[in-house]
Amino acid sequence: MKRKTVLLAVLNAAAAIAVGIGAGLLYKYYFRSDGMASRDDMKILSDKIAALSAAVDAKVGVAAIFSTADTLVTSSDEFPMMSVMKFHQALAVAAWLRQNRVPLDAEVEVTPDMLPGGTWSPMRDSFPQGGSFSYRELLRYSLEYSDNNACDILFSLSGGPERTDSYIRSLGIDGFGISCTEAMMHEEPGISDRNRTTPLSAALLLEKFWNMRDEDPYSRFIWETMASCRTGMARIPGHIASKASAIAHKTGTGYVTPEGRIAAVNDIGIVVLPDGSRFSLAVFISDAGCTPEQCESLIAGIAAVVYERAASAMTEEDVETRD
User: Fold this and answer.
1) Calpha distance 145→137 (Å, rounded)
2) DSSP per-residue codes, 5-65
3) DSSP 8-state secondary structure symbol assigned to residue 321
4) Which terminus of the chain has fewer Cβ atoms in its 10 Å neighbourhood, N or C?
5) In this structure, are 8 and 99 located in the same domain?
6) Contacts with 15 (C-beta within 8 Å, 6 or more apart), sequence order
7) Is residue 215 part of a domain?
């Protein structure tokens, strides 16, 4: 029988004070659906993540959901998504295309004024005069290459940030908000946190997507594109790329604040193990006083210990099943 574990580790000083614990301490809950105490391996995993996170000067939030239904959450706070939002948008665009019976290969005319400079845009760099692009190409630029102009073109075609927000909520997901385009965030970086999420919200959306990834050509294309993502390869894929049979992920990176701190270094993704088991992982780092490389190394380290736990959990379950 699969054992469902939920672990909540909330780094929240106010909550700690409310229960009489000194501010700044790790405040943890362990419980299972059957009322029994959590398995030791989940506590060990939580402690490993806490130790890794303590080594950097940053706010860190992690959520992991295993195919055994075990769940780990280290923070209930909301974090700025940055380009992680493009995953949410891709799902909303796919729904809009599906609803309007528009094929992925339908083309859109992109003019030079739709490709402003000063922002990350491999599409503009390759095609400064624009041209005809299919929805498939625009989604690939946005998801695989994190192209900001492609993202905003898709917003303009599919109803804007508001429709993306509404669609994700229609899936039963909350704990997030999307209200800004890439152009808005480029013009005023401080509003980037309006596109926000809790780690658990992001992990739950990944789980929703896993269950719908083979439903139609739109969902299959999103899965295949995220699985071929080459941005942020030092993050979730970092130490586990050679071990996993598939990693579909989406990164997000923020600006440097006037105080010299990094607003965000994020990665969310689904990792499939060779035995077919999997886990959804969301790692958000904000207000970082360390280097981008240290942030990426932290994400890779967290992914590695979560992978180890997933592999050992499935081995244990196989033994129980045989018994």
Assistant:
1) 11
2) EEEEEE--HHHHHHTTPPTTS-EEEEEETTSPPPPHHHHHHHHHHHHHHHTSSSEEEEEEE
3) H
4) C
5) no
6) 27
7) no
CATH number assigned to the domain comprising residue 109:
3.40.710.10
The answer on 62 and 104 residing in a single domain is no
- Name every residue whose Cβ is closer than 8 Å to that of residue 185 and which is 6 or more positions away in sequence: 191, 192, 195
Residue 294 lies in a domain: yes
Claim to verify: residue 255 and residue 161 sit in the same structural domain:
no
What amino acid positions are annotated as catalytic residues?
Answer: 83
Cα 25–Cα 199–Cα 204 angle in degrees, nearest 5 = 135
- Dist CA 235 CA 302 (whole Å): 9
- Convert the pLDDT of each residue in 154-204 to its tens digit: 999 999 999 999 999 999 999 999 999 999 999 999 999 999 999 999 999
Tell me the C-alpha distance between 145 and 138, whole Å: 10
Please check whether residue 153 lies inside any domain of the structure. yes
Flag whether 130 is in a domain.
yes
